[in-house]
C-alpha cells in the first residue's frame, strides 16, 4: 500500500517512470523516483520480514510451557485470524503484487497453526470442548480461510485499477490525480475498515486475560515486539511514499486511512500489553492448571 503498482508497464520499462530506480522496477515492477520512494519500499520489506518472523517465538513458547490455552485469549486469536482473512481477501481483490498475496497467505496459515496449537492444549489440559459460539466462529473462519486460499488464482478482479487493501508495495489507483471511489474501491475500503476494527478489538481480550491472570507466562513477548516493529515500519512506509502526481496529501491519507489505523492504531494497545509484561514479569502463573503444569515440569527435571 505504500508504493505505486504500475501495472501497465512491462518489467524494466521506465518510460512512464522518469528517474526511477532500475533495480526496483526490475524486481518489484514499482516506480521509485526519489529517496522517499526507495525508503518506503525498504521499510515495507522490513515490515513483511517482521510479520513473517513474529509467529515463531509463540510457537516455541507454546511447546515449551504447554499452557497456551491459559496464556492466550481465544478471542484474541479469532480476531487476529478474522483480520488477516479480510486482509487476504482485500489483497486478492485489489490485485496486489504476488509478494503481498503470498505474505497475506502466510498470515492466515500462521494463524491457523496457532489456533490449532491452542485447541490442542485446550483439550490436553482441560479435557473439554469450546462453547458453541466459539466453535461456530472457528469453523466459519477456518472454512473461509480454506475457501479463500483455494480460490486464489481461479478468479480475477473486475477492475485492475482498484484500491490496494493492506498492500505494502502498491497504491490505490493507476490514474493520476484524485478521482471518485469505484465500486471495487469501495468494497476494498470497507474490507480494510472491518479488518482494522478486528485488529484493534483483538487486543482487548488479551489485555483482559493478562490482567485476570496477573501473569504473562506462556505468552511470547517477541510475538508482540515483532508485530509492533512490523506495524511501525508499515505505517512509516505508507507515510513516506510520495502521493500520485496531482494527488494531494490529504487525499492520499484518506485512501490509506483504514490500513494506517489498523497498523499504527494498534500500537497503543500493544504498548499496554508491553507494560503488562513488565508488571507481571516476576509474577507466578495465575491459575491452578498453570501452576500444576509448571510444577510437573520441575519435578520431571
As for the number of domains, it is 1
Strand content: under 5%
- Determine the N-to-C terminus distance: 50 Å
Sheet of most strands: none
Function: Amino acid transporter that specifically mediates the pH-dependent export of the cationic amino acids arginine, histidine and lysine from lysosomes.
Keywords: Amino-acid transport, Glycoprotein, Lysosome, Membrane, Repeat, Transmembrane, Transmembrane helix, Transport
Transmembrane segments: 38-60, 72-93, 99-121, 133-153, 186-206, 218-239, 259-280
Protein name: Lysosomal amino acid transporter 1 homolog
Which keywords apply here?
301 residues, mainly alpha, 11 helices, disordered C terminus, L-lysine transmembrane transporter activity, glycoprotein, amino-acid transport, repeat
Descriptive report:
- 68% of the residues lie in helices and 0% in strands.
- The chain has 301 residues and is mainly alpha-helical.
- It has one domain (34-300).
- The longest helix is centred in the N-terminal third of the chain and has 31 residues, at 35-65.
- Mean pLDDT is 73; it is low at 1-12, 153-176 and 288-301.
- InterPro entries: LAAT-1, MFS_trans_sf, PQ-loop_rpt.
- One of its GO terms (cellular component) is lysosomal membrane.
- Belongs to the laat-1 family.
- The chain crosses the membrane at residues 38-60, 72-93, 99-121, 133-153, 186-206, 218-239, 259-280.
